[in-house]
From TrEMBL:
Classification of source organism: Bacteria, Pseudomonadati, Pseudomonadota, Gammaproteobacteria, SAR86 cluster
GO BP term, pick one: regulation of cell shape
KW Transmembrane (keyword) present: yes
Domain Rod shape-determining protein MreC beta-barrel core: 152-273
Name the record gives this protein: Cell shape-determining protein MreC
Residue intervals passing through the bilayer: 12-29
Family according to the record: Belongs to the MreC family.
Native source species: SAR86 cluster bacterium SAR86B
Keywords in alphabetical order: Cell shape, Membrane, Transmembrane, Transmembrane helix
PANTHER family, A to Z: CELL SHAPE-DETERMINING PROTEIN MREC (PTHR34138)
Amino acid sequence: MSRVVPTSGSKLLYFFFVCISGLFLYIDLNYKSFEGIKNFYQSFIISSKYLIKSATVEPIKLLYEITKDKSDLINENKKLKLELDKSYISNFIISNDSKFFVDEEAIKNFLKLNNIEEVFYLAKLQYFDTEMYLCCSKHRAFIQTYNSNNNRIGSPVINQDGIIGQIIYGNSLSEVLLLTDIDHVLPIVSGDHFCNARGSGKPETIICKYNNKLWQQKVVIGQNFYSSGMGGVYPKGILIGKVKEIREVEENFTEFEINLISNPLASNVVGVLESL
């Protein structure tokens, strides 16, 4: 491969630029003539690095810090929520334990006032369809006994106010047919008046119907009715409720509604009596 031999003109040009460069170097070393330019260059380099870092590295670093802070905050919130949940659970247990003993004593007082000596078992109200109870004719509740897993089908169920129904199905988790269910029948009595009261399908209300020719004495508003003890389900002499409405439904027949003194929603702890 051949090389181009420098001409005399190119040599002179090269020599000229070398001399010029030497002259600039001499002037810079002796008179600092290019100090401003060098400072401007250094400043430009520093500024450029700062701007590039601010535009690229700093946002990434800031995003990382924000993500890290957010993660720490989430973990702290989870920790606080866990502590709060533990506190709620502790308070709930304390509150329900206290209410449990209060309800147990209330049931015992009810039995004592009504001279009922049957053994009873405490149970917890596990499920109650409030919408069905308020709107429809099927009134049921589901309870779970605390201390007994024996089959209690047919046993009366009470709370601190009075009778609320009877167990019709189940074992440890039992289905209770409430007094207000249209399929429930309760023999009740008041003086010489006796009837089989049926559930009305309305909250806290049962219905009786009687023949005026058989009952010489009329029923009056506010009259008390009690369990008769007939039928072999409920103890005798327990106050069921008071007459709140009377109406003539057919010739010689009168129908009246009784407002129950017991409310199945009054407590989530109930008593299950042993079958009579």
